[in-house]
Design goal:
The strands form 7 sheets. Strands 18, 25, 26, 27, 28, 29, 30, 31, 33, 34 and 35 form an 11-stranded mixed β-sheet that branches. The chain has a 7-stranded antiparallel β-sheet with strand order 7-8-9-10-2-17-16. Strands 14-13-12-11-15 form a 5-stranded antiparallel β-sheet, with no helix packed on it. By secondary structure, it is α+β, with helices and mostly antiparallel strands. The two termini are about 35 Å apart.
Length: about 750
């Protein structure tokens, strides 16, 4: 185990006895709060809390607003955290750095050598100076628990790159950029200076004006001279294509390499470490005489201030009901023992429809044969679907689409359904060849969505594979493995299960995931919430696969209904009694509020489970933390995952927070992908089960239960499956003929959404 793990956090020391004069005013409403920030935001910290609004002057002689109170700064860690963040912003701006304040502090370097786009340019190709991919840094202030047991302030430092489009729109139009269909910004005055804010999407250009359609309230038009293209990756790519033309794909590919060379792997850690020297040289007075002192280096595992950590081993997967056949390697276990339920699986001879484009029919047939029979001599895919999952040779038939359009895919599906009807034989599975470009199509224009909806109406699961992944010359071993396991799961196969580590009698784990449709940036957005449940039974984790999804505003009632149904069914199946200990764990894409938690507890009490304990966990992907292993030189021929922490590394940041790495060097796809980010697990204070290390271990184990791929999942299946359900059901709403009733039958109990 490496003693050199690094966390991108710099310890900040402020004397707990430092006195702080605080003004307190009652909270009335958000409008009054905004007025306070507008009036005093330049000179005071404004922080709303349970007992009102605290107003803290930066200087000792600053105006006291409201009731005057005096605290030791150590007694108000919330204010210490806010004051340190505001001090950091002021100090960096005073050095002349370009800092954007918000949830985190964002810095973008303006030095010419920081524009990595210049490193990727061929001779003779030039861009306006404001267009770039620049070295940037993010700063955030958090509190973490050291191994000594004390909560300490830290500044999290992350160095990466940001897209910049800092030239006014007329400059970009002059080099051939068409703004129609793109979002633009305008400048507005704020108490913190002039800032750019999203204005809207350009519908058309009329003279010297932009006509906007998805726009800020009251803003129908905007002068071209007053507009900036929004600095997003898709807009940056659009500008590159306008300038580079046909050479744009090669330029963007070179740029990815240059970015990885400048800020990837160990270089990212080195650049973050260089900021330590900068912060240590800043004037140390934070507020009212309180001074900050920083450590000399980022937190490292061989320091007694580093949080407690562990590296989890792979769980022993279960491949038979008797739990005698186990393996930590899913592919090895399948090839040695066969899938968990193969002895009871039926039918062994599947009827498979293949939908593909007419021009690619021959190559698709070759791929399907490899999928079924495997590839002789292959290290990873010698066993195909038939041998690995103990199935007989299937009945299969190809139905070709005359073109890649949804109309002709619909026609091919119609012929497949008619064929099955004429033989009085239902299809067990449909394999669908798609193209990468189909991801950008919606509703009735998307051949895959149309195909999936039509087959779901017939209670037939579908499995897609992209042409780009199977075309001649491309290795298909990994594709065969991943498509194979998803196919087996979709026809109600159970490849393997997880053992239950703890001795608790009954456990139910509920995952909530969400998906937001891309549409208006200003109006109400469509968001669906999915629910997935897993329960422990006879020492194994089982998936309860009827996973509902519902519009976000209605999700909680759907959750309570699903919870009541699942508990009732599992209770009968496992013969729960009211005196049995029960643990309910919720993996949620957001923070549960107190009203929701009270409603869950009330339901459990009504169901007669007086000994139930609860854990409400926010599984967060957005946070400021990164973990490094400087000893990791990378794996494979590409040396991908250089300096990446190992999969399974867990850091306990506080009694209610932990980091868990679900991607390590082996799970990084390409060397240019850089350092994978861990998940942050946040335990709600109203939880009655508070063992964050046990809960983190469970999240890690559930990432090994995904049947979407033979590779481990970057999310626990509780959240991953719920996300997929929400995504699919929201996308289906735009397909003509879709009805939620399509998944009310047996298909609803399968993993149709994988």
């Amino acid at each position: 185990m490496s003693a050199k793990y690094r966390l991108n956090a710099l310890l900040a020391h402020i004397d707990d006895d430092s006195k702080l004069i605080v003004g307190r005013v009652p909270y009335e409403d958000d409008k009054k709060l905004e007025e306070l920030r507008s009036r005093y935001g330049q000179t005071h910290l404004i922080k709303r809390g349970r007992d009102g609004v605290s107003v803290v002057a930066n200087g000792a002689q600053g105006e006291v607003v409201g009731e005057r109170l005096v605290f030791d700064i150590g007694a108000r860690p919330d204010l210490a955290k806010g004051l340190l963040k505001e001090w950091l912003a002021r100090s960096l701006i005073a050095k002349g750095l370009r800092i954007r304040t918000g949830r985190v502090l964002e810095y973008v370097s303006e030095r010419p050598e920081s524009n990595i786009l210049n490193d990727a340019l061929n001779e003779g190709l030039h861009f306006p100076s404001g267009v770039g991919r620049r070295v940037a840094a993010d700063f955030d202030v958090r509190r973490i628990l050291g191994s000594s047991g004390k909560m300490r302030l830290v500044v999290c430092i992350d160095v990466r790159t940001r897209v910049t489009l800092d030239d006014p729109l007329p400059v970009l139009i002059a080099i051939g950029v068409n703004p129609v269909g793109r979002y633009v910004q305008r400048e507005i005055d704020t108490p913190w200076g002039c800032r750019r804010r999203l204005a809207g999407r350009v519908r058309e250009v009329v003279g010297d004006r932009l006509v906007l359609d998805d726009r800020d309230e009251g803003l129908e038009e905007l002068l071209i001279a007053d507009a900036w293209l929004e600095p997003r990756q898709e807009n940056f790519d659009h500008v590159v294509k306008a300038v580079a033309g046909l050479s744009a794909p090669d330029l963007l590919k070179r740029l990815r390499v240059c970015v990885a060379e400048r800020v990837g792997g160990s270089k990212r850690l080195k650049l973050a470490t260089e900021w330590v020297t900068v912060l240590r040289k800043l004037p140390p007075e934070v507020a009212q005489g309180a001074r900050v002192k920083f450590d000399s280096t980022l937190l490292r595992a061989d320091s007694d201030r580093f949080p407690r950590f562990d590296v989890y081993e792979k769980p022993q997967l279960v491949f038979d009901p008797g739990r005698t056949k186990v393996s930590a390697w899913n592919q090895g276990g399948l090839d040695k023992y066969g899938p968990y339920n193969y002895e009871r699986f039926a039918p062994r001879r599947l009827h498979i429809a293949v939908i593909c484009q007419q021009s690619r029919e021959g190559d698709v047939e070759k791929f399907v044969q490899k999928l079924l029979d495997g590839i002789r001599g292959s290290k990873y895919a010698e066993n195909g679907l038939m041998r690995r999952y103990h199935l007989d040779q299937p009945f299969k038939r190809v139905f070709a689409s005359r073109s890649p359009t949804a109309l002709h895919y619909r026609d091919a599906v119609g012929r497949a359904i008619e064929d099955a009807t004429s033989r009085d034989q239902k299809w067990d599975l449909a394999l669908v060849q798609t193209d990468d470009a189909m991801h950008d199509l919606r509703g009735d224009d998307n051949p895959y969505l149309v195909t999936k909806v039509l087959f779901l109406a017939q209670q037939v699961p579908t499995q897609a594979f992209e042409w780009e992944s199977i075309r001649p010359g491309v290795p298909v071993d990994v594709t065969i493995n991943n498509v194979g396991i998803a196919c087996y799961a979709k026809v109600n196969g159970v490849p393997w299960l997880l053992p239950v580590h703890q001795a608790i009698t009954h456990e139910l784990v509920v995952g909530l995931g969400s998906y937001e449709a891309q549409g208006s940036r200003f109006g109400a957005r469509q968001r669906y919430v999915g629910v997935a449940t897993v329960f422990s039974s006879d020492g194994r984790y089982m998936l309860e696969s009827r996973t509902p999804a519902t519009p976000a505003k209605e999700y909680f009632n759907a959750l309570l209904e699903a919870l009541e149904r699942v508990i009732g069914e599992v209770r009968r199946q496992d013969a729960w009694s009211e005196n049995d200990p029960v643990r309910l764990v919720f993996h949620v894409f957001k923070d549960f509020n107190k009203v929701e938690i009270r409603a869950v507890k009330a339901l459990i009490e009504r169901l007669g489970l007086p000994h139930a304990r609860f854990a409400f966990i926010h599984v967060a992907e957005m946070h400021p933390y990164l973990l490094f292993d400087p000893d990791q030189e990378g794996v494979g021929r590409e040396l991908k995952g250089e300096a990446a922490a190992p999969r399974g590394l867990r850091l306990t940041l506080a009694w209610d927070e932990a980091l868990i790495c679900l991607k390590g060097p082996k799970e990084v796809r390409k060397w240019t992908d850089g350092i994978p980010k861990p998940l942050l697990l946040k335990l709600h204070p109203d939880s009655t089960f508070k063992d964050i290390s046990t809960l983190a271990r469970q999240v890690f184990d559930f990432s090994c239960l995904s049947w979407r791929s033979l590779l481990p999942s970057p999310l626990p299946i509780t959240v991953l499956y719920a996300d997929l359900v929400a995504q699919k059901l929201l996308q289906f709403r735009e397909v003509t003929g879709w009805s939620p009733e399509h998944i009310l039958g047996p298909i609803g109990r399968s993993r149709w959404f994988l």
